[in-house]
């Protein structure tokens, strides 16, 4: 196990910011105006930028996050949750006359989680909301939800980062389809690591074979596709390597935020020098920790705890 950690990575997450409201123990939606008792109701910082920022901070990175929120109590609560986790939130821009993005997530006993979602202020975020020093001193830039910016704008942002020697990663929020792929197409050559889920890869590429779908994304200029497959773990595809990593068996409480957590774990591990297989394994371990609680801040974990978890699960 690595006991001496390098200086903290400097990472910015840009894009989708959401406050998730979790309702645990949903068996069904009551009829009419009837009510029902549930186990718990809680809320957490989420979104492909906000949730990933929280997990990156827990794993030891120096994180600043950028995006749009409203001037409402939801935005205040989301900001407070991120600040409490050590995330620099000065890049969150408050937009008047629109609410902060939020989701209500009824979680079934098996961990399934349908959702009601309000896009809110995320639809109003643009490059003009980034200050002139937003990229200063960064090791890595993570763009969550490039579909809100569109391909040309996302390409400009990611291109600026790579011109400065900053590595890049991208995660999608929307379900994939060929139209979305064309919408963000200009950004693809500027992405070092694309971090979709299996359904998004199938939808984007029209391929039922995940490796073939990933390779078609590589052909569009992406450097590496690291995709999550739910209970089947992760698949990482580059032009030189294909790695399949199983998921960790845990008692699932809520799968909300597992994709963001995998992204944060994979990014962190790659910057720590892990090879693709070890980085994917580390990402799956972070997701496993989050799945055992509610939201990205579930349970207690840091880089060392995840390493210990992985080591303990390896065959002797």
Question: Secondary-structure blueprint of this entry?
Answer:
Layout: E1 10-15, E2 18-24, E3 40-46, H1 50-58, E4 62-70, H2 73-84, E5 88-95, E6 102-107, E7 116-118, E8 140-144, H3 151-163, E9 167-171, H4 178-183, E10 193-194, H5 198-205, H6 210-218, E11 224-228, E12 234-237, E13 242-245, H7 258-271, H8 276-291, H9 303-313
Parallel strand pairs: 1-4, 1-8, 2-6, 4-5, 8-9, 9-10, 10-11
Antiparallel strand pairs: 2-3, 6-7, 11-12, 12-13
Helix pairs in contact: 1-7, 5-6, 7-8, 8-9
Structural account:
- The protein is an alpha/beta fold and 316 residues long.
- The protein is 31% helix and 22% strand.
- The protein has nine helices and 13 strands.
- It has helices at residues 50-58, 73-84, 151-163, 178-183, 198-205, 210-218, 258-271, 276-291, 303-313; strands spanning 10-15, 18-24, 40-46, 62-70, 88-95, 102-107, 116-118, 140-144, 167-171, 193-194, 224-228, 234-237, 242-245.
- The chain has a nine-stranded mixed beta sheet, with helices on both faces. The chain has a four-stranded mixed beta sheet with strand order 3-2-6-7.
- Strand 9 (167-171), helix 4 and strand 10 form a beta-alpha-beta unit.
- The mean pLDDT is 93.
């Amino acid at each position: 196990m690595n006991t001496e950690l390098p200086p903290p990575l400097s990472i910015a997450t840009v894009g989708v910011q959401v406050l998730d409201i979790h309702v645990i123990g949903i068996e069904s939606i009551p009829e009419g105006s009837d009510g029902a008792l549930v186990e718990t109701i809680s809320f957490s910082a989420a979104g492909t930028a906000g949730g990933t920022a929280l997990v990156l901070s827990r794993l030891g990175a120096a994180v600043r996050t950028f995006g749009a929120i409203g001037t409402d109590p939801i935005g205040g609560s989301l900001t407070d949750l991120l600040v409490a986790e050590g995330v620099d939130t000065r890049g969150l821009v408050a937009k008047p006359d629109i609410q902060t993005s939020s989701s209500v997530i009824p979680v079934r006993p098996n961990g399934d989680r349908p959702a009601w979602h309000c896009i809110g202020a995320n639809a109003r975020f643009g490059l003009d909301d980034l200050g002139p020093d937003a990229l200063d001193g960064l090791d890595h830039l993570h763009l969550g939800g490039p579909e809100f910016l569109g391909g040309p704008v996302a390409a400009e942002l990611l291109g600026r980062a790579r011109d400065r020697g900053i590595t890049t990663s991208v995660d999608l929020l929307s379900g994939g389809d060929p139209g979305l792929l064309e919408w963000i197409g200009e950004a693809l050559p500027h992405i070092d690591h694309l971090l979709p889920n299996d359904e998004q890869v199938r939808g984007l590429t029209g391929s039922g074979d995940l490796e073939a779908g990933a390779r078609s994304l590589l052909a569009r200029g992406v450097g590496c596709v690291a995709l999550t497959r739910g209970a089947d773990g992760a698949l990482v595809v580059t032009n030189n390597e294909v790695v399949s990593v199983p998921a960790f068996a845990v008692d699932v409480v809520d799968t909300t935020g597992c994709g963001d957590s995998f992204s944060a774990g994979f990014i962190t591990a790659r910057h720590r020098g892990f090879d693709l297989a070890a980085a994917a394994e580390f990402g799956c371990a972070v997701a496993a920790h989050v799945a055992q609680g509610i939201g990205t801040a579930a349970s207690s974990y840091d880089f060392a705890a995840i390493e210990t978890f992985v080591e303990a699960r390896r065959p002797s």
